[in-house]
Amino acid sequence: MLKALIFDLDGTLADTEETHRQAFNAAFIEFGLWWDWSPPQYAQLLAVSGGKERLRHYIEALRVPAVERARLLETVSALHETKTRIYTEMVARGRRPFRPGVLSLLSAAHAAGLRLAIASTTTSANVYALLQANLAPGSGIGFDVISCGDQVEAKKPAPDIYQLTLACLRLPAESCIAFEDSLNGLRAAKAAGLVTVVTPTGWTRDEDFSAANLVLPSLEGLDLKRLDRLLEVAHAAA
Questions:
Q1: Selection from 29, 230, 9 nearest residue 133 by Cα
Q2: pLDDT at 139
Q3: What does 162-196 look like in DSSP terms, one character per residue?
Q4: pLDDT averaged per 10 residues in sequence order, the chain, 238 residues
Q5: Beta carbons of 117 and 177 less than 8 angstroms apart
Q6: What pLDDT does 95 receive?
Q7: For this structure, is 8 an active site residue?
Q8: DSSP code at position 145
Q9: Number of CB atoms found within 10 A of residue 39's CB
Q10: How far apart are CA 140 and CA 90, in angstroms?
Q11: Does 15 participate in catalysis according to the annotation?
């Protein structure tokens, strides 16, 4: 029986990656760096989960002297904090609304008494900025559990963030459905034993989602009856 819906944040609730890319580039300017991540380059960097991890990966691949690389690696935390500040300011200005169908599905789940959770590799500041910008104060929609990347040792595609979320919900994977947009997210959810619905974005549409239980262009039109049936069929076939 379906008891909870667990959502990834970036790309799933909202197509935020372009805002993240712009925020990274703005942070680079503030730090006097020469970097400028283009959309194709950022699409490749998205294979690395987590902003700080992405920065370290990029710096380690730079053709610079070892001393300079070490210096740059020491700036990662401060650089990421600056990027997060810029990102949350952009989101607060309404730059990234929820994707089609997200709000209606959240509303239906809330009305049906299902529990809602977020399992994301992003920072808590990014999560709350997006929710505050998109959920009206009187909507009544809230998340029972919000798990963020800094709460686990290994980020997606490791299952840690989903295992933490399930533990906080005190629910078995068999009674929950995960929602993702990327291959790393799908792998993490499946490794945690979750039935998974994937809604790719332009950043992830070329990835292999053959392991997903359901792939849709968006959550628009998706109702709880279909999710109940999806869970039932998936576990009957297991």
A1: 9
A2: 77
A3: HHHHHHHHT--GGGEEEEESSHHHHHHHHHTT-EE
A4: 96 92 96 96 92 96 96 97 93 82 96 97 89 82 92 94 98 98 97 98 94 97 96 88
A5: no
A6: 64
A7: yes
A8: E
A9: 11
A10: 25
A11: no
Peptide bond into 157 cis (omega under 30): yes
Q: pLDDT at position 78, please? A: 97
Of 147, 128, 120, 121, nearest to 51 (Cα)?
121
Q: Please report the domains of the chain, with CATH numbers, ordered by start residue.
A: 4-16+96-237 (3.40.50.1000), 17-92 (1.10.150.240)
Structure tokens at 145: 């559990």
140's tokens: 């009544």
Tell me which of 10, 15, 160, 181 is the catalytic residue.
10
Residue 221 token pair: 């039109």
Distance, in Å, from the CA atom of 81 to the CA atom of 64, rounded to the nearest integer, reads: 24
Give the SS3 label for residue 3: coil
Nearest to 116 by CA among 175, 170, 180, 169: 169
Integer Cα distance of 161 and 176 in angstroms: 14
